[in-house]
Amino acid sequence: MKLVLLLALFSVCNAMISIPLYKHDSLSRVSGDARVAALEQRHGVEAVTSIVQLTSYDYMGFLGDITIGTPAQKFMVAFDTSTTLNWVPSIYCNTKPAKKFHKKIPVYKFCINHTRYDPGNSSTSITGGGVECNYRNMGDMYCNETYDTICVSKTCVKNQSFAVGGKIPDRYYTTYPFGGVVGLAYGSGGNSTSLFLNMIKQAGIKPYFGLYLSLDGGEILFGGVNHDHYNGDLIFASVNTTSGYWQIKMNSISTGTGNHSATGCKDGCQARVDSGTQFIAGPAKDIDALQEAIGAKKQGNEYIIDCKEMDTAPNVKVMIAEFPFTLTGNDYIFKNDTSGKCVSGFMSAQVPTWVLGDIFIRTYYTVFDLGNKRVGFAKAK
Question: Residue 185, SS3?
Fold first, then answer.
């Protein structure tokens, strides 16, 4: 087993940006069916292309602030490591009932409840051509490609490309507080350059960021890591650079002992580290075996565990870089606010890889190291 220590690469430097994250409490009120649908749409088998693709952010739980334009227009957005694309709603999204001669023009409730970007009020805005956004299996969203100044904390990037939405289906967006997405996936999205890459090029930010999540909120630190948020050494795994995701090799995932044990990903498999997914997801056969071993009972698309067993549920061991990352019952079981029942944080879905979501990231401080093409983990405080 090889431990990779955090040395000069992550020394303290001036070019760092700390972003506080706010917890979105509606996460635990989303149904199991909605969670599965959202996850499968986010991690479909389609390759990343030049078309702007928007996926469902039904239960995106950690949000932060950015500004766009001159003067600044403020947005609370979801920071998502599964996409490189940036998106906000715009004034092209209708919020008023149509006049009597245009009654077919719909009103989009999401845009009523959120800040809408107005390119006409920004002296630095450059509007490109129309873009049809592929909103997978949930209706089309029509966008314009726009370039403007985007600021993260006090660091600003000029001529950053992003999509501005003009048609947003109400079904999945009405009740959620975030007003856009900043993509932090590996590499560059399509023909445009991601915000993170432009932060590196224009602002001198070091090519990595640390992500800390907790039950109350969290922090993204661009260009650095926050040693106050983890114990021990960071353990690194190399990124599959052809995937377009922060995708790494997972050696196995296992739990229990004797007749009450289960092991998934026995021969090694690929896993995506995704801040926009709450659960740990994998193939149904492996997930079902894990659920049985931890004592979870299936109800619809959820697995229910007695809340009294949080402290006594068996540990789950995720092997990465030949190192055991342990999850306790308190790490992978959460209470559903609507039903009052406790739900397992493991989920089966038809996705091409395993997905390590917020349950894993919350337990292990995560460093996304673009410069060295790797992801690192250490036990979060």
Answer: coil
The distance from CA 308 to its chain's CA centroid, rounded to whole angstroms, is 30
Alpha carbons 287 and 274: distance in angstroms, whole number: 18
> Which residue bears the tokens 């694309």?
85
Residues of the chain with CATH 2.40.70.10: 15-222, 228-380
pTM for this entry:
0.84
φ, ψ (nearest 5 deg) of residue 25: -75, -10
Reported as a single tens digit per residue, the pLDDT across 216-274 is 788 999 999 999 999 999 999 999 999 889 999 999 999 988 888 999 999 999 999 99
235 strand-pairing partners: 377
Distances from the Cα of 169 to the Cα of 110, 122, 149, 166, 284, angstroms = 8, 26, 27, 10, 30
In whole angstroms, what separates CA 337 from the centre of its chain?
Answer: 21
- Separation of alpha carbons 309 and 307, rounded Å: 5
Rounded Cα–Cα distance for residues 179 and 89 (Å)? 7
The CATH architecture assigned to 228-380 reads: Beta Barrel (2.40)
Handedness of CA 301, 247, 361, 208 (dihedral sign): negative
Q: Which of the residues are catalytic? A: 80, 274
Nearest to 254 by CA among 188, 191, 320, 300: 320
Tens of pLDDT along 307-341? 999 999 999 999 999 999 999 999 999 887 667 78
Residue with tokens 């089309």: 140
* Strands of 342-344's sheet in order across: 297-299, 302-305, 342-344, 333-335
Q: What is the CATH number of domain 15-222?
A: 2.40.70.10
